[in-house]
């Protein structure tokens, strides 16, 4: 599994108040150190809703730990005088109903001021209204579904919930970015497969529209069930169409086996997908035949910038047993976006509940140089940063092929 997350080009060193080295204790506790040693400080909690168990736990734990790191650093710096921040992490098991229950639990806690999450767009659809009803801000480091910020009517975008923000780019950017890469690489005929979930379907739809617009041909369009692990029927349907590549909308637990089964059945072409594939687990599941497979992911490699290297060093020093993975940097910036808003909204607040409405307003005004580059939000709550990277499996590991800003 790679020990890096992805970040955007042009990231600068962290703001001094949040760039202190993390304490050396191992992450995992839901309580962070007391602010400035003041035991009488009032408590405000930042929640996390992510898969902390199951197939996608590698990504969820990276998110949780990165938020924990941001909280510890803020407390050590006494970033919000008179207040102590604590972590309240909930496992959504990558399941919408479980995520909704987690959101309900956090919304019922009078000390919760914001939430980082979710990983899955399908889970976010259930979490958004629950947190919004309690005026609790939500910042996702990983959701890419366009409708989460612009509604279901693409022609008339309307923000569904003013409490929802994200630090990652969307399917509307990631899918076309992949389409342009393949088409400009000389690949003109592609088959698509998705897992019927919001994330996978959205990626494929965005990819397909751009690929056709460029002049490419979609020779086959298939789906799989995410709870299955045998894809013979799909491979058999695609193979006679002789695609030059397969674009997959989904995550690595299914994408890895799909790649392996494609190659074993003679469909020896690259599998490409979105950030849901970008993890070392994909290579483990796909095996040696994953060589040449590709994935896009938001931002540029963490270790390509000074701020990214600083984050990785601090994460390592903190002693977390799990890597920050693909979304660590984005979760860290999401937490710090909330913390920056709290510096204003909690300053003269009598309670967390009283500060929640102002936190929504103040979060929309946040602008700082974070690990993933400039952290700021547009009128829909989307990140203003639109840098992505294409990665390719080379020598049994993900290697960056191209980093660029989508225009």
UniProtKB/TrEMBL annotation:
Keywords: Signal. The keyword NADP does not apply. PROSITE patterns: PROKAR_LIPOPROTEIN. Residues 45-396 form the Leucine-binding protein domain. Residues 1-22 form the signal peptide. Belongs to the leucine-binding protein family. This is Putative leucine/isoleucine/valine transporter subunit periplasmic-binding component of ABC superfamily (LivJ).
């Amino acid at each position: 599994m790679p020990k890096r997350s992805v970040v955007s080009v042009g990231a600068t060193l962290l703001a001094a108040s949040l760039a202190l080295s993390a304490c050396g204790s191992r992450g995992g506790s839901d309580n962070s150190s007391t602010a400035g040693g003041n035991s009488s400080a009032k408590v405000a909690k930042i929640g996390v809703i992510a898969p902390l168990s199951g197939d996608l736990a590698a990504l969820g734990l990276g998110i949780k730990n990165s938020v924990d790191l941001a909280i510890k650093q803020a407390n050590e710096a006494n970033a919000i005088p008179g207040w102590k921040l604590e972590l309240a992490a909930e496992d959504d098991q990558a399941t919408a109903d479980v995520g909704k229950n987690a959101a309900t639990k956090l919304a019922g806690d009078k000390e919760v001021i914001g939430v980082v999450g979710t990983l899955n767009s399908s889970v976010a659809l259930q979490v958004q209204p629950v947190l919004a009803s309690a005026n609790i801000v939500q910042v996702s480091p990983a959701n890419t579904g366009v409708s989460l910020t612009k509604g279901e009517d693409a022609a008339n975008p309307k923000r569904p919930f003013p409490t929802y923000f994200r630090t990652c780019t969307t399917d509307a950017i990631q899918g076309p970015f992949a389409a342009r890469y393949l088409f400009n690489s000389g690949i003109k005929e592609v088959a698509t497969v998705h897992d019927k979930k919001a994330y996978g379907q959205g990626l494929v739809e965005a990819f397909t529209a751009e690929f056709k617009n460029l002049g490419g041909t979609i020779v086959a369009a298939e789906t799989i069930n995410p709870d299955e692990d045998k894809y013979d029927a799909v491979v058999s349907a695609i193979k006679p169409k002789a695609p030059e590549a397969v674009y997959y909308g989904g995550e690595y637990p299914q994408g890895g086996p799909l790649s392996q089964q494609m190659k074993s059945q003679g469909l020896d072409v690259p599998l490409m997908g979105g950030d849901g594939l970008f993890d070392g687990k994909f290579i483990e599941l796909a095996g040696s035949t994953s060589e040449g497979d590709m994935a896009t992911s938001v931002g540029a490699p963490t270790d390509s910038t000074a701020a990214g290297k600083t984050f990785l060093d601090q994460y390592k020093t903190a002693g977390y047993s799990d890597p920050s993975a693909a979304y660590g940097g984005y979760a860290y910036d999401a937490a710090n976006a909330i913390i920056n808003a709290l510096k204003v909204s909690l300053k003269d607040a009598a309670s967390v509940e009283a500060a929640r409405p102002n936190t929504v307003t103040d979060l929309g005004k946040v602008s700082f140089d974070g690990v993933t580059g400039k952290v700021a939000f547009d009128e829909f709550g989307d990140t203003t940063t639109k840098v992505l990277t294409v990665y390719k499996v080379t020598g049994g590991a993900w290697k960056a092929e191209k980093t660029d800003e989508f225009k």
